[in-house]
Please model this.
Amino acid sequence: MPQLTAAGIDPFDESVYRAILVHHTASPGELAHELSCSPERAARALDRLRENGLVGRLSGTRRRYAAIEPAAALESLVRSRTADLDAVRAAAGDLSRLFTTAQDGGSEQIEVISGGEALGRWFVQLQQEAHEEVITLDRPPYALTTSNPIESTALTRGVRYRAVYAPEALEWPGVLADIRDLVAHGEQARVLSGLRVKLAVADRRLALMPLSLDFTTDVRAAVIRPSALLDALIDYWELCWRTATPLDAPADDPLSEEDRQMLTLLVSGLKDDAIARQLGWSVRTMRRRISRLHEELNAANRFQAGVIAARRGWI
Model:
Protein backbone atom coordinates (compact mmCIF):
# COMPACT_ATOMS: atom_id res chain seq x y z
CA MET A 1 0.00 0.00 0.00
CA PRO A 2 1.49 3.39 -1.00
CA GLN A 3 2.55 5.43 2.01
CA LEU A 4 4.18 8.47 0.44
CA THR A 5 1.22 9.85 -1.53
CA ALA A 6 0.58 12.56 1.05
CA ALA A 7 4.12 13.81 0.46
CA GLY A 8 3.48 14.12 -3.27
CA ILE A 9 5.11 10.85 -4.35
CA ASP A 10 3.26 8.90 -7.06
CA PRO A 11 2.55 5.23 -6.15
CA PHE A 12 4.64 4.00 -9.08
CA ASP A 13 7.50 6.31 -8.08
CA GLU A 14 7.25 4.90 -4.57
CA SER A 15 7.56 1.37 -5.94
CA VAL A 16 10.71 2.45 -7.82
CA TYR A 17 12.10 4.02 -4.64
CA ARG A 18 11.39 0.86 -2.61
CA ALA A 19 13.13 -1.24 -5.26
CA ILE A 20 16.27 0.92 -5.32
CA LEU A 21 16.37 0.91 -1.50
CA VAL A 22 16.71 -2.86 -1.66
CA HIS A 23 19.48 -2.77 -4.27
CA HIS A 24 21.18 0.42 -2.98
CA THR A 25 22.13 1.34 -6.59
CA ALA A 26 20.43 0.51 -9.88
CA SER A 27 20.03 1.60 -13.48
CA PRO A 28 16.67 2.36 -15.16
CA GLY A 29 17.01 -0.88 -17.15
CA GLU A 30 17.52 -3.00 -14.05
CA LEU A 31 14.50 -1.48 -12.31
CA ALA A 32 12.38 -1.79 -15.44
CA HIS A 33 13.06 -5.52 -15.57
CA GLU A 34 12.13 -5.94 -11.90
CA LEU A 35 8.97 -3.78 -12.08
CA SER A 36 7.83 -5.00 -15.51
CA CYS A 37 7.80 -1.55 -17.08
CA SER A 38 9.73 0.23 -19.81
CA PRO A 39 13.21 1.64 -19.06
CA GLU A 40 11.91 5.06 -20.11
CA ARG A 41 9.15 4.96 -17.47
CA ALA A 42 11.65 3.87 -14.82
CA ALA A 43 14.04 6.65 -15.87
CA ARG A 44 11.29 9.29 -15.61
CA ALA A 45 10.37 8.02 -12.15
CA LEU A 46 14.03 8.18 -11.08
CA ASP A 47 14.28 11.76 -12.33
CA ARG A 48 11.21 12.71 -10.28
CA LEU A 49 12.64 10.96 -7.21
CA ARG A 50 15.90 12.83 -7.75
CA GLU A 51 14.04 16.16 -7.87
CA ASN A 52 12.39 15.23 -4.56
CA GLY A 53 15.75 14.40 -2.98
CA LEU A 54 15.10 10.67 -2.59
CA VAL A 55 17.79 9.39 -4.98
CA GLY A 56 21.00 10.78 -6.42
CA ARG A 57 22.65 10.10 -9.75
CA LEU A 58 26.03 8.40 -9.53
CA SER A 59 29.03 9.77 -11.40
CA GLY A 60 30.07 8.11 -14.64
CA THR A 61 28.83 7.84 -18.21
CA ARG A 62 26.24 5.14 -17.44
CA ARG A 63 22.93 6.31 -16.04
CA ARG A 64 22.86 4.83 -12.54
CA TYR A 65 21.23 5.99 -9.32
CA ALA A 66 21.69 5.50 -5.58
CA ALA A 67 19.08 5.84 -2.85
CA ILE A 68 19.48 8.69 -0.39
CA GLU A 69 19.21 7.53 3.22
CA PRO A 70 15.41 7.37 3.76
CA ALA A 71 15.10 9.03 7.17
CA ALA A 72 17.03 12.09 6.05
CA ALA A 73 15.56 12.23 2.53
CA LEU A 74 11.95 11.87 3.63
CA GLU A 75 12.41 14.41 6.40
CA SER A 76 13.64 16.89 3.79
CA LEU A 77 10.65 16.08 1.58
CA VAL A 78 8.20 16.58 4.45
CA ARG A 79 9.94 19.85 5.28
CA SER A 80 9.44 21.18 1.79
CA ARG A 81 5.87 19.89 1.46
CA THR A 82 4.47 20.77 4.90
CA ALA A 83 4.90 24.47 5.60
CA ASP A 84 2.72 24.28 8.70
CA LEU A 85 5.38 22.22 10.49
CA ASP A 86 8.21 24.70 9.87
CA ALA A 87 7.54 26.64 13.07
CA VAL A 88 7.46 23.42 15.10
CA ARG A 89 10.74 22.20 13.63
CA ALA A 90 12.35 25.59 14.23
CA ALA A 91 11.25 25.41 17.85
CA ALA A 92 12.61 21.87 18.10
CA GLY A 93 15.95 23.09 16.77
CA ASP A 94 16.04 25.91 19.31
CA LEU A 95 15.20 23.51 22.13
CA SER A 96 17.89 21.13 20.95
CA ARG A 97 20.47 23.92 21.04
CA LEU A 98 19.31 24.88 24.54
CA PHE A 99 19.77 21.27 25.61
CA THR A 100 23.25 21.14 24.07
CA THR A 101 24.21 24.38 25.78
CA ALA A 102 22.92 23.06 29.11
CA GLN A 103 25.22 20.08 28.75
CA ASP A 104 28.10 22.59 28.90
CA GLY A 105 30.73 20.49 27.26
CA GLY A 106 28.92 17.19 27.52
CA SER A 107 29.58 16.41 23.84
CA GLU A 108 32.98 16.21 22.20
CA GLN A 109 34.13 19.18 20.12
CA ILE A 110 35.50 16.74 17.52
CA GLU A 111 33.72 13.50 16.71
CA VAL A 112 35.20 10.99 14.25
CA ILE A 113 32.73 9.01 12.12
CA SER A 114 33.43 6.05 9.84
CA GLY A 115 31.92 4.84 6.57
CA GLY A 116 30.62 6.45 3.42
CA GLU A 117 26.98 6.12 4.50
CA ALA A 118 27.68 7.86 7.82
CA LEU A 119 29.45 10.65 5.96
CA GLY A 120 26.46 11.02 3.63
CA ARG A 121 23.98 11.08 6.53
CA TRP A 122 25.97 13.77 8.34
CA PHE A 123 26.20 15.88 5.16
CA VAL A 124 22.41 15.72 4.80
CA GLN A 125 21.85 16.47 8.50
CA LEU A 126 24.26 19.40 8.46
CA GLN A 127 22.32 21.04 5.63
CA GLN A 128 18.91 20.31 7.13
CA GLU A 129 19.91 21.91 10.43
CA ALA A 130 21.27 25.05 8.73
CA HIS A 131 19.12 28.15 9.19
CA GLU A 132 21.29 30.84 7.57
CA GLU A 133 24.25 29.64 5.53
CA VAL A 134 26.20 26.62 4.29
CA ILE A 135 29.75 27.13 3.03
CA THR A 136 31.71 24.38 1.31
CA LEU A 137 34.98 23.38 -0.30
CA ASP A 138 34.15 20.79 -2.95
CA ARG A 139 36.49 18.43 -4.76
CA PRO A 140 36.57 14.77 -5.80
CA PRO A 141 36.29 12.01 -4.82
CA TYR A 142 32.67 11.62 -3.74
CA ALA A 143 31.52 9.08 -1.16
CA LEU A 144 28.09 8.42 -2.73
CA THR A 145 26.92 10.74 -5.52
CA THR A 146 28.10 13.98 -7.08
CA SER A 147 24.66 15.60 -6.86
CA ASN A 148 23.25 17.29 -3.76
CA PRO A 149 19.43 17.33 -3.90
CA ILE A 150 19.21 18.60 -0.31
CA GLU A 151 20.71 21.95 -1.37
CA SER A 152 17.84 22.81 -3.70
CA THR A 153 15.36 22.36 -0.86
CA ALA A 154 17.47 24.40 1.54
CA LEU A 155 17.80 27.23 -0.99
CA THR A 156 14.00 27.45 -1.27
CA ARG A 157 13.70 27.96 2.50
CA GLY A 158 16.21 30.81 2.46
CA VAL A 159 19.51 29.14 3.35
CA ARG A 160 22.45 30.84 1.64
CA TYR A 161 25.01 28.61 -0.11
CA ARG A 162 28.55 29.62 -1.05
CA ALA A 163 30.72 26.95 -2.61
CA VAL A 164 34.34 26.83 -3.74
CA TYR A 165 35.01 24.05 -6.27
CA ALA A 166 38.28 22.49 -7.32
CA PRO A 167 38.83 22.34 -11.11
CA GLU A 168 38.90 18.55 -10.82
CA ALA A 169 35.25 18.61 -9.74
CA LEU A 170 34.23 20.29 -12.99
CA GLU A 171 35.69 17.40 -14.97
CA TRP A 172 33.31 14.82 -13.44
CA PRO A 173 30.32 13.97 -15.69
CA GLY A 174 27.29 16.10 -14.91
CA VAL A 175 28.90 18.19 -12.15
CA LEU A 176 29.23 21.43 -14.11
CA ALA A 177 25.60 21.20 -15.26
CA ASP A 178 24.48 20.60 -11.66
CA ILE A 179 26.48 23.64 -10.49
CA ARG A 180 24.91 25.85 -13.15
CA ASP A 181 21.45 24.71 -12.07
CA LEU A 182 22.24 25.46 -8.41
CA VAL A 183 23.65 28.87 -9.33
CA ALA A 184 20.41 29.60 -11.18
CA HIS A 185 18.56 28.85 -7.92
CA GLY A 186 20.77 31.06 -5.76
CA GLU A 187 24.07 29.33 -5.00
CA GLN A 188 27.18 31.50 -5.21
CA ALA A 189 29.92 29.40 -6.80
CA ARG A 190 33.63 29.95 -7.33
CA VAL A 191 36.49 27.76 -8.50
CA LEU A 192 40.03 27.54 -7.09
CA SER A 193 43.01 25.43 -8.08
CA GLY A 194 44.95 23.55 -5.44
CA LEU A 195 42.13 22.61 -3.05
CA ARG A 196 43.38 19.72 -0.94
CA VAL A 197 40.45 19.28 1.46
CA LYS A 198 36.68 18.80 1.39
CA LEU A 199 34.69 20.83 3.89
CA ALA A 200 31.11 21.80 4.73
CA VAL A 201 30.15 24.26 7.47
CA ALA A 202 26.60 25.09 8.61
CA ASP A 203 25.87 28.45 10.26
CA ARG A 204 29.53 28.63 11.34
CA ARG A 205 28.76 26.29 14.24
CA LEU A 206 29.07 22.78 12.77
CA ALA A 207 31.59 21.45 10.25
CA LEU A 208 32.10 18.17 8.42
CA MET A 209 35.50 17.32 6.94
CA PRO A 210 36.73 13.99 5.53
CA LEU A 211 40.07 13.06 7.08
CA SER A 212 41.35 11.52 3.85
CA LEU A 213 40.64 11.83 0.15
CA ASP A 214 41.08 8.07 -0.29
CA PHE A 215 37.50 6.82 -0.41
CA THR A 216 38.50 3.38 -1.69
CA THR A 217 39.25 2.05 1.80
CA ASP A 218 37.90 3.10 5.20
CA VAL A 219 36.11 6.45 4.93
CA ARG A 220 36.61 8.57 8.04
CA ALA A 221 35.50 12.14 8.70
CA ALA A 222 35.49 14.66 11.53
CA VAL A 223 32.36 16.37 12.83
CA ILE A 224 33.63 19.61 14.35
CA ARG A 225 31.64 21.73 16.79
CA PRO A 226 32.45 25.26 18.10
CA SER A 227 36.18 25.33 18.86
CA ALA A 228 39.45 26.95 17.80
CA LEU A 229 39.73 24.32 15.06
CA LEU A 230 36.32 25.29 13.64
CA ASP A 231 37.36 28.98 13.69
CA ALA A 232 40.56 28.11 11.81
CA LEU A 233 38.67 26.11 9.17
CA ILE A 234 36.26 28.99 8.61
CA ASP A 235 39.20 31.41 8.24
CA TYR A 236 40.73 29.03 5.68
CA TRP A 237 37.45 28.90 3.77
CA GLU A 238 37.27 32.70 3.73
CA LEU A 239 40.80 32.86 2.26
CA CYS A 240 39.84 30.36 -0.43
CA TRP A 241 36.67 32.32 -1.22
CA ARG A 242 38.53 35.61 -1.62
CA THR A 243 41.08 34.14 -4.03
CA ALA A 244 38.69 31.95 -6.07
CA THR A 245 37.25 32.82 -9.48
CA PRO A 246 33.46 33.34 -9.70
CA LEU A 247 31.57 30.86 -11.84
CA ASP A 248 28.54 33.12 -12.31
CA ALA A 249 28.68 36.10 -14.64
CA PRO A 250 27.84 39.75 -13.76
CA ALA A 251 24.71 41.18 -15.29
CA ASP A 252 26.65 43.42 -17.73
CA ASP A 253 29.01 40.66 -18.89
CA PRO A 254 29.94 41.52 -22.53
CA LEU A 255 31.20 38.02 -23.25
CA SER A 256 28.99 35.37 -24.75
CA GLU A 257 27.93 32.67 -22.32
CA GLU A 258 30.14 30.09 -24.06
CA ASP A 259 33.19 32.37 -24.11
CA ARG A 260 32.70 33.24 -20.44
CA GLN A 261 32.47 29.58 -19.50
CA MET A 262 35.56 28.80 -21.55
CA LEU A 263 37.55 31.62 -19.95
CA THR A 264 36.41 30.71 -16.44
CA LEU A 265 37.42 27.08 -16.91
CA LEU A 266 40.71 28.17 -18.44
CA VAL A 267 41.56 30.43 -15.51
CA SER A 268 40.50 27.65 -13.14
CA GLY A 269 43.36 25.52 -14.40
CA LEU A 270 41.56 22.91 -16.51
CA LYS A 271 43.49 21.47 -19.46
CA ASP A 272 42.43 22.02 -23.06
CA ASP A 273 40.88 18.59 -23.55
CA ALA A 274 38.91 18.85 -20.30
CA ILE A 275 37.53 22.30 -21.23
CA ALA A 276 36.60 21.15 -24.74
CA ARG A 277 34.85 18.09 -23.30
CA GLN A 278 32.82 20.19 -20.83
CA LEU A 279 31.69 22.60 -23.56
CA GLY A 280 31.06 19.90 -26.19
CA TRP A 281 33.69 21.26 -28.59
CA SER A 282 36.69 19.80 -30.33
CA VAL A 283 40.07 20.90 -28.94
CA ARG A 284 40.74 22.60 -32.26
CA THR A 285 37.53 24.66 -32.00
CA MET A 286 38.31 25.65 -28.44
CA ARG A 287 41.82 26.83 -29.32
CA ARG A 288 40.47 28.85 -32.23
CA ARG A 289 38.00 30.60 -29.90
CA ILE A 290 40.77 31.26 -27.39
CA SER A 291 42.83 32.95 -30.11
CA ARG A 292 39.86 35.12 -31.04
CA LEU A 293 39.33 36.02 -27.40
CA HIS A 294 43.00 37.04 -27.10
CA GLU A 295 42.45 39.47 -29.95
CA GLU A 296 39.31 40.94 -28.37
CA LEU A 297 41.09 41.45 -25.04
CA ASN A 298 44.37 42.50 -26.63
CA ALA A 299 46.07 39.79 -24.54
CA ALA A 300 49.36 38.12 -25.36
CA ASN A 301 48.55 34.81 -23.64
CA ARG A 302 45.94 32.95 -21.63
CA PHE A 303 47.14 34.16 -18.27
CA GLN A 304 47.00 37.77 -19.39
CA ALA A 305 43.52 37.21 -20.86
CA GLY A 306 42.33 35.93 -17.51
CA VAL A 307 43.84 38.90 -15.65
CA ILE A 308 42.29 41.43 -18.03
CA ALA A 309 38.86 39.75 -17.88
CA ALA A 310 39.01 39.60 -14.08
CA ARG A 311 39.94 43.27 -13.80
CA ARG A 312 36.97 44.17 -15.98
CA GLY A 313 34.66 42.09 -13.79
CA TRP A 314 33.83 39.62 -16.54
CA ILE A 315 34.77 36.53 -14.52
The chain has a mean pLDDT of 82.
